[in-house]
Amino acid sequence: MAQSSILGRVSQLVRANINAILDSAEDPEQMLDQLVRDFTNNIAEAEDAVAQTIGNVRMVEDDAREARQASVDWHDKAAAASRRAEELRSKGGTEADRFDDLARIALRRQISYEEQARSLETQASQQNELVDKLKDGLNKMRVKREELVQKRDELVSRAKMAHAQQQVQQSIRSVSVMDPTSEISRFEERIRRQEAQVRGMEEVAASSLDEQFAQLDSGEDEAEVDARLAELKSGADAPQRAIGSGSPSR
Predict the structure, then answer these.
(1) What own/partner pairs with CB < 8 Å and gap ≥ 24 does 140-143 have?
(2) Counting Cβ atoms within 10 Å, is residue 54 exposed (0-12), middle (13-18) or buried (19+)?
């Protein structure tokens, strides 16, 4: 019955490990790998227990066969002693009773070994039933381990996919929060300001040239005025002579 308790304890350990994964899934892949290792170790422990039980059953079966053979041997000895007693009686021997006593002793031994053989055979039969149950439970555990390994691969794949999707969603959310179009708009606005500043500088430069040319023109006008004033001062009739010289002579 100790072997049955081992299988029961294995089931409890498996359930405890599964609950641990559900309660704290910090690293699902690592925890699932640990669960597979624990389950594999539990199966190895159960295999040792089953093997030990089978070994004990085989020893009981061997003892039962030996007891059964001993029963047969003592039956043969009892029969031989009984025949010897009858032979002595038929010849008028005096030791016939001694051989009958030996036959009785042999029969008692035969009965004892028969009872021992029956007890051992009953014990072996019961333990064989337990072995069959243990083997069946062990095979179920092996199947469960294969299912666990497959489930582990599936869950690890799903966990990796979920992690990748989470990263994509976080990237998308970060892009949405940052809004790169607003950055581009600010950069474009800065360029527009620079372009406007260049145009302003060009206009400033152009206005400065206009003023210089205007000053130049103004200087030429003043020179003309000064020249004419000088002419006026050199002779008051100069304009008239200039007019008279332009008229036809008579």
Answers:
(1) 141/7, 141/10, 141/39, 141/42, 141/43, 141/46, 142/43
(2) middle
Question: Are 102 and 158 a contacting pair, CB within 8 Å?
Answer: no
pTM of this prediction exceeds 0.85: no
What CA–CA distance (Å, rounded) separates 203 from 199? 6
Distances (CA, A) of 221 to 89, 210, 214, 224, 242: 186, 16, 11, 5, 22
If you write DSSP's letter for every residue of 169-206 in order, what string do you get? HHHHHHHHHH-HHHHHHHHHHHHHHHHHHHHHHHHHHH
Q: How many Cβ atoms are within 10 Å of 134's Cβ, its own excluded?
A: 22
- Here the tokens at position 20 are 């641990």
Q: Which residue has the tokens 């006008």?
A: 221
In the chain (250 residues long), the average pLDDT of successive 10-residue segments reads: 52 53 61 83 88 92 96 95 90 85 95 96 92 88 86 81 83 63 72 82 73 66 78 66 46
